[in-house]
Amino acid sequence: MADSISLSRNTLMRRVEEISTDIISKITEFVTKCRYFSLALDETCDLTGMAQLAVFVHCIDDNIFQDLLDLCQLETTTTGKDIFIRLKDCLEGKNLNWDKCNSVCTDGAPAMMGKTNGAVALLQNHIGRQ
Fold it and tell me: What is the separation of C-alpha 52 from the centre of its chain, rounded to a whole number of angstroms?
């Protein structure tokens, strides 16, 4: 039986991409259907020193659900504006409703929590909450 399974590089890559796409669509579908969701943001660096934004989502509906929503690459800088733009692109790319976002949790870094130019302040201004 093992002789009939194709293990070529292209086949494995295609299958991993299909599984990844399926997982992303299921997470997005669940978050879209829930009443409210919360976000947890963490800016970090990978092994090559490239800055990345990890966006975790926590939903409470009939069930409690928590998972990694997206891992976004920050192109050049890690200012509050850069983080907010990537977060905005992430949520809008998944067609998530901003009104359902009831809280945001961060590590407290200045780029996240700055009163005027922090990612959270920019998010509050964008969705019209203070």
Answer: 11
CB-count exposure of residue 7 (10 Å: 0-12, 13-18, 19+): exposed
- How many independent structural domains does the chain possess? 1
Closest to 85 measured CA to CA, from 97, 73, 96: 73
Residue 44 has pLDDT above 90, yes or no: no
The range of the structural domain enclosing residue 42 comes to: 2-127
> Quick one: tokens of 100?
């359902």
Q: Rounded to two decimals, what is the model's pTM? A: 0.80
Give the separation between CA 72 and CA 50, rounded to whole angstroms.
11
How far CA 130 is from CA of 9, 115, 116, 123, 126, in Å, comes to 51, 11, 12, 10, 10
